[in-house]
Amino acid sequence: xxxxxxxxxxxxxxxxxxxxxxxxxxxxxxxxxxxxxxxxxxxxxxxxxxxxxxxxxxxxxxxxxxxxxxxxxxxxxxxxxxxxxxxxxxxxxxxxxxxxxxxxxxxxxxxxxxxxxxxxxxxxxxxxxxxxxxxxxxxxxxxxxxxxxxxxxxxxxxxxxxxxxxxxxxxxxxxxxxxxxxxxxxxxxxxxxxxxxxxxxxxxxxxxxxxxxxxxxxxxxxxxxxxxxxxxxxxxxxxxxxxxxxxxxxxxxxxxxxxxxxxxxxxxxxxxxxxxxxxxxxxxxxxxxxxxxxxxxxxxxxxxxxxxxxxxxxxxxxxxxxxxxxxxxxxxxxxxxxxxxxxxxxxxxxxxxxxxxxxxxxxxxxxxxx
Amino acid sequence: xxxxxxxxxxxxxxxxxxxxxxxxxxxxxxxxxxxxxxxxxxxxxxxxxxxxxxxxxxxxxxxxxxxxxxxxxxxxxxxxxxxxxxxxxxxxxxxxxxxxxxxxxxxxxxxxxxxxxxxxxxxxxxxxxxxxxxxxxxxxxxxxxxxxxxxxxxxxxxxxxxxxxxxxxxxxxxxxxxxxxxxxxxxxxxxxxxxxxxxxxxxxxxxxxxxxxxxxxxxxxxxxxxxxxxxxxxxxxxxxxxxxxxxxxxxxxxxxxxxxxxxxxxxxxxxxxxxxxxxxxxxxxxxxxxxxxxxxxxxxxxxxxxxxxxxxxxxxxxxxxxxxxxxxxxxxxxxxxxxxxxxxxxxxxxxxxxxxxxxxxxxxxxxxxxxxxxx
Lengths: 370, 375
Prior knowledge:
The complex is a heterodimer of chains A (370) and B (375).
Chain A: H1 3-23, H2 30-60, H3 68-89, H4 94-122, H5 127-151, H6 175-183, H7 187-200, H8 204-222, H9 224-234, H10 236-241, H11 246-272, H12 284-294, H13 299-321, H14 336-339, H15 342-352
Chain B: H1 2-42, H2 47-59, H3 62-87, H4 95-117, H5 123-152, H6 156-176, H7 211-229, H8 231-241, H9 243-248, H10 253-280, H11 291-301, H12 306-330, H13 336-349, H14 351-357
Helix pairs in contact in B: 1-2, 1-13, 2-3, 2-12, 3-7, 3-10, 3-11, 3-12, 4-5, 4-6, 4-10, 4-11, 5-6, 5-10, 7-8, 7-12, 8-10, 11-12, 11-13, 13-14
């Protein structure tokens, strides 16, 4: 990722944060506003980061994945379903149920990844069409099962959705506890430590996502596996000539991509809120696709781009909190639709190439034929 | 004598190629229906009753037929939009947004134009104006994407998706704010009713099917005629199948790309316009959710041929329309239809699966529908 795009993203994030600080100045101190927005940004960027990583793995291996949205939606549904069934039908405790739900989500994502792999690698279906099939299938499948299992004839739960066992909670980093004695009695110091602590206290999937960004970067650019993946995505014929199994590498990476999208789906129903509603991913899969392109098919770039989109979503949330202090002539900004336009417009600007060209892997989207 | 034989054989060739073109979609539908039946059995339903309900609800009576045509109207327009773009080598995922924008603009023109002018317009002026502006809004929305594709290389798939969200967000804003029905009893995000002079009359008294359906069929013919009988159509198809060849043949590829997207958006805009002027007489938030993806499925099922699009649209419309009856008879959720449609699309897209199941040999070359990000 070149410095120009980096500074562009940084600038926009600063502007977004600045806007919230300005609006909320009468209500809370800047440091609290900034840290709470930062915490929200990191949290809401989680599915975007994971979705974008899913895209990076698939496309680095030469398989276009516009089915991230559908994979996420399917995973979100099955994760939630798994947790509910474990809890209510099989009588598991709360935490084992949630954990199994999480694993179910990842499995569901992987299976959707497998479908995409079969379609696009084995059957050489146009990969964009294959992704669209996955998106449409996901809507149909989750909608049908949701209605059938909970409201259908002879459903196990008597026509109503049972309570989910719950969701993953914040992991507390004991920063405040450690630093309070060091700060002495200084109120400022304590406040700053507490504010930083509030950013660091994230939920498990959010933390995993950030770790995965760096793991993915290392895997893709510093290991033999990564080199082979990239070779298969750039010049499959050459890779084949030197003995790399193109088909197998592509399958493996698309499955990894599916699993990552599955984890992103788990964010919605296992981590964020313990409930499911049809179409709940609401385009986040497409945004992560955009984040991937924005980040020029690199994990760290995609992460930074996801943070930008996360910040604009956080702005949306914060704007609603500051409802009564926004001047009436700016009242239309409270409507989430207006601020909600930012990521989409930014994406289109990025795609024009004004802020540096993006280069996809050379064989991205081309089925491999010997 | 010999000439006659030759003509005979070409005719036979045409018949066989038509059959071959229809074969995969028909077998895909058949396979999906069988799989759907298995799913119904799995959830302890009776597939025969379910499918009987589906047929009865879609074709069983005059009003059922009328409702099927009502559903088919936007499907045909939106399906043609996607199919036309496919012919030009472009993937328009944005039919959803273009349709919604067309509907919103048509509604605005329908209720606000007489207010702005201060006098009522006769239908012969008002209705065409509403239709043109509604179609124009869709066309404009898609033209932006076409322009970006032609001059900056920004991929139309991402851009149309983004334009969808921009359109839907903006429309949510408008329908909750400036364009909201001011009636004090109204809590829904919807526009006021459009003026009587902007209504498309129903074809038969007492049934909801309106002249938009006939216009949709006409549009399908016009798209076929344009693609196959005009220079522009030839250029669109050439750019679609081989942009380099088109360039060396002296065609203005950039212009063709923009024009293809514009025409595609216009058709999608018309889909929305006719929903407002012929059916709902207003635009309401959330009515159009899903048309865009259905349109992609329809275009693929119809093999991007206008006649195929019409047939696929009627099939999809029948399924949507009959679903209510099916649900009434068997308590199968309406969402089963989405599953069936997804399965049909899956088999049409992955025709290798169908060819494998039914042992059909592949003929001819693969058709390029879209290109990767680089293209």
